[in-house]
Specification:
Distance between the termini: 18 Å
Number of domains: 2
Number of strands: 0
Length: about 190
């Protein structure tokens, strides 16, 4: 790997040789600059830590989401906790101990219509709040009402959402994850060596 200092990559990869190899291959292929690969690695590392925390707190959807994150990041190496959880659940499904993958992972999908609204609108809610915070504006009821109106003006009836639900999505679904993510990043070296 000419031009790439593997020891630097290893320090960035928190001592994980597999992750360091992943970073090196992305840089070597020209897919990312060293700075871009580093930033992506920090993001994915922190996101996986949040997903592990969610899993440990009982969120069974965290495992398939973590696998999806690793795949979306370009075959990012799965941490050992994820390999173990995935292997156990998939193994149970493969040998017919579980009739569905949902059952194998312990996922019970209820209230799909409400959850679909949350998933569909999460990005809009987060982007709107981020823009507002970047401008130094407060998060308040009026803002949640603005977001609701924005969403409802462009959504079919079955995806319309009220300001109370917007606030709930932000405070109960998104904010706790951001707080955990920020805490992880504070404990992580966030500048290239």
């Amino acid at each position: 790997m000419s031009g790439i200092n593997f020891e630097e990559l290893l320090s960035v990869a928190h001592g994980d040789y597999q992750q360091a190899g992943w970073l090196a291959s992305r840089i070597q292929s020209g897919q990312y600059t060293q700075e871009q690969a580093f930033a992506l690695s920090i993001y994915v590392y922190a996101a996986l830590e949040v997903l592990q925390w969610q899993h440990d707190e009982g969120d069974r959807e965290a495992v398939p989401l973590a696998v999806d994150l690793c795949l979306q990041a370009g075959n990012y190496p799965m941490p050992s906790w994820l390999l173990e959880c995935w292997g156990n659940a998939f193994g149970a499904w493969r040998v017919c101990e579980a009739s569905t993958l949902d059952e194998a992972f312990g996922i019970k999908r209820k209230h799909l219509k409400a959850r679909r609204k949350e998933q569909v609108h999460m990005g809009t809610i987060v982007a709107y709040i981020k823009k507002r915070k970047d401008k130094g504006l407060r998060i308040d009821d009026g803002m949640f009402e603005e977001i609701s109106a924005l969403i409802n003006n462009s959504s079919p009836d079955d995806l319309k959402i009220g300001k109370t639900k917007v606030a709930e999505i932000y405070y109960k679904k998104f904010r706790p994850l951001v707080d955990k993510f920020d805490a992880i990043l504070k404990g992580t070296k966030t500048t290239p060596p």
